[in-house]
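fold-stage: in
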Amino acid sequence: MCGRDHGSRLTSTAPWVPGVFLPAQPGRADLDPVIADGPRRVVVEGDDADLAAVLVRLLRTERLDIEVAYLAVARRSAAARAWGLPPGRAAAALALDGAAAPAPLVRDDLGGVLVGRGEVRAMTGEVYCDEFLVLRGRAPRLVVVPGPAGVAVRAGRGGRAPDGRLRAVPARAPAGRGSAAGRAVQLGGPGFTVMHDGVAHPREVRRWAWYRHTADWLLVRPPAT
């Protein structure tokens, strides 16, 4: 998938097979004809929201056995950073010749998935990662990222993503200084707007959850070091 004209492009691993140009954040009608023949691997060239849309469709059609490679068109792709994907020509070479490995699939409770970064600004309420309290009160920014460890969260002033290390926060700790990693992150408050992979949820919510799905997806990425 490619971000040209804010669209996307889906192609197979064979360079002689033409790519399929699709609209941005393609849906069922766009993707089902592409995956109907059961390709072994697809290469998604686009932005993080495009990659998330493809994974949503693979999840709903129970085709998580298809390998997925990602060529990010954005220089600062949160998904590429979260999964350690290289830029430029190295990314293209990896997409065609690299090996796929299981990766945690982080989804939300409204049927979406998170591939790079979730964010809530001016968060007020409570945030838990598994049984650990991350925030009670207010924080200027809440950042959630998927990764090899599952899902990680950080509440505080900085915009940097969590590092994935598990740090529990006591229930009486000051607000806005917590971070943790685990299987699920749950948010609750009087009302907040969720950004997921660069896309704002269309309405304000009082509850939200990101959690690791029971099955992984197959991501083409560099070998773990």
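fold-stage: in (second)
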Amino acid sequence: MEVHFRPETESRIQELAAKTGRAADELVEDAMAGYLEELAQTRAMLDRRYEEFSSVNVKPLSGEEAFSTLRRRSQERRS
């Protein structure tokens, strides 16, 4: 697979490779692996939350209720 970057991005990758002593392709591989893992975790979390919401285990709040709750909790922490 070939990946093409904008010149600025490629320059930053090359600079980081030089600073770390690692090959640029290793850095890109590691970055993509980390990104894909994080993306999978985010997707799993969203799927769980959607399941909770759709199974009525979670009560939806209006925007005003949510902000009111956040304000109250914030004030409680400050006290």
